[in-house]
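Below sits my pick:
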Amino acid sequence: MNMAILMNGKHVVRAAIALLMLCAVLSTTVQAQTTLRMGSNDSPLNAIPGAVQRPGGMFGGLLSEIAQRENWQIEVVPCQWVTCLQMLEEGTIDILPDVSYTPERDLLFDFHQTDAVLSWSQVYERNGLDLINLLDLNESTIAVLDGSVQQRYMMELVDSFDLAVDWLMFDSLAATFDAVASGLADVAVASHFYGDRMAVQFGLGRTPIMFQPSRIFFAVPAGMHADVLSVIDNYLVQWKSDDDSPYYSLLREWSVEPAGATVPVIVWWIIASLSLALVATTLFVMLLRFKVAEKTRNLMASESRLNTILNSVDAYIYIKDDNLRYRYVNRKVCELFELPVDNILGKTDADFFDEKTHAQVMQNDLLVIKSGERVADEEPSTLIRGHKQYEFLSVKIPLRNPDNSIYALCGISTDIAEHKQVRDQLHQLAFYDSLTGLPNRRLVLDRLGHALASKDKTGYEGALLFVDVDDFKVVNDTLGHEVGDQLLQLIGERLERVMLSTDTAGRLGADEFVLIVEDLAVAADECLVRVRDMAVALLHQLNQPFDLNGTDHVCAISIGIAMFSDTNDGDVEALLKAADLALGAAKNEGNAVRFFNSEMQVEVTRRTRIETALRKALRQGSLNFHLQSQVDESGRIFGMEALLRWHDPELGQVAPSDFIPVAETCGLIVPLGEWVIERACEMLASWQSDPLMSTLTLAINISPRQFHNERFVDHAVKCLEKNQIDATKLELEVTEGLLIENVAATVDKMDRLRQLGIRFSLDDFGTGYASLGYLKRLPLTQLKIDQSFVRDLLVDANDEAIVRTILALGHSLNLRVLAEGVETDLQAERLREMGCRFFQGYFFSRPQPEPNWREQLLLTQGSDDKPGVRPADDHSGT
């Protein structure tokens, strides 16, 4: 009887199900066709603009599949993203695909329950940037879709890290990637579905910077189309549980990378078993099965997302068990070992690295496994296969069981070899002479300062030796610059052999070397004897023949010595001046050693006379300008450089190389520089009404001390306002010496003046202190190649390489590059072949007073002569 009742119950249930299905079919048949207006932007997840008959893209295809089954008519409405959102809010469109859920949007729109896609945001870069983390975005330009979730989230993230970035907002995602490809922006931000696809199209690179995991939905206006959302939810739930469904077909079609790991067979057996069991179980068991299946799907989706993220990170991620065997590796580790995952798991580092690497890595791993420590260490590594070498920065942490016991470690390793190499190269360029490898002027001054400070603390005397090659110019002129460079290298090697480990040998420039000797003794007499003996021995060493290309050459060497005690206040500049005076005395006698003494005060007296006369000249305004033209590759004059000249009634013609250093040391450089700015502005004002001169720029030199003066900016602005001139016609030439002081303050001053229109040119580039890291921060418009590199360009491969480097650097920074000191046609032609377009030097014109230039320009106006013809009667220097 019970069996009969059960059979009757089954028949009733089957009949009821059949009846419901029939009603559904009839209802669908008679239902009026629904028309949905769908917003369309240019994302591949959305509909393709212009496809009015059938929406394209992943979301468009998904909605088409549902519409086909539900007898919906889809009307595509093209719009930009911000407009799409506004139209959806106003109800002008019925549905919008590819909408990330946010609490704010939840107040404006309605969403279905099951997400259509799980995504995250990714940063894509133009080639050559090699961004590693979020902090690398500092001082970059970011392109982002206006109104997108990436825009808001990224702005908050950048603000929280206090990064300085520029933003470019676009109405379409394609425009953001095009902006990066065309150079308008450095990076673009988008969801990884769109970004991975468009990065290939635009030739961009995917960075390891990812953020903001998000759930993507169809959205409808608030309070409308609840039935549509319900239908979409039903299909998503049904299709997501079926690998062969239209959902996964579209996902595979529109994903650049594989969708992730396949479902394990055991899971399907469990699901099949549960399905069979559900047939005979109660409603409670059916509910339980639904919950278990839902959790299983979520777990699988979470695992797939995690694998995708870990395989997208530009780092080597791995897990090792307590026996240090690999239990998990990401894609980067497989690429490192050039093996598939199955050939790595279960093996140890001994199978992949050499013994030395294995020993260090195992030591760090055991600290994590045995002691539970977090280890962060640099791990130089050599692979057995191919013997490739890497520099890894590894961070390792323990993985614990619920009882707090350690069962494995998780490690993340990043290859920092390239970063270390660049860092070492920049350090070498910044602090060491490229020819001899000795400390350069910057490092010598730093060590000399420390040596003087140490002497003040300990009382132990020290000495500064200036070493100069008396006949170096003869070597250069007779044997060539290549042999001259070889001689300088050999002198540097002998200096290093003579000095002690506590001493410092360096090269200040040209043929000038220094030797800093520390911790000699407390007694003055003993110090003098030791330094004298050392200097005589050094002189003897340097007087030995040098083998220059198979020919013995004996140099005449002069050595000037200043004891640390020769400066009472430990002033580095005073000590340098004393040693230089001693060197001058040694050079006068030739091949000699001389100590600084009171007789050298004659030089000080000469400087005092110049200082007195210079103060008088400033008061009377007896200094004047000579102008030298700056020309482009066609010979057209586009600007002038103002060069200071001074003729004193008593001293005669005083060269700038004589009175400028005096002005620097006696404090006159600031008033002298202010006079130069005032005179330059007056000259530009007089040019404004002169057709011959009105188009020219005027460049003047600014010393570091003048630039760092607190009233420099205010004085410059006052001069501009007083003379009512176009600030873009004034160019300030600064030297790399600006960078040895407060860089932030330097950049701030330059920015303030640049905003007024004043241009900045970096003079004598390549001879000073410039750091490439600081160079890009300066608001420069021009680099000037120092004439020392131009002079030997045709005979010195090193100078040619330096000129090429400066030209390439200038072009990459979008700066004009001008070569100064061009004296011959061959030099000019070679520079043009190398890509230089702007020139200055005797070949084009010699410096001459302003009236002479007016006459020359009048003569050349309307003729075939180039305006840069050299006057034959002027032999003043540059």
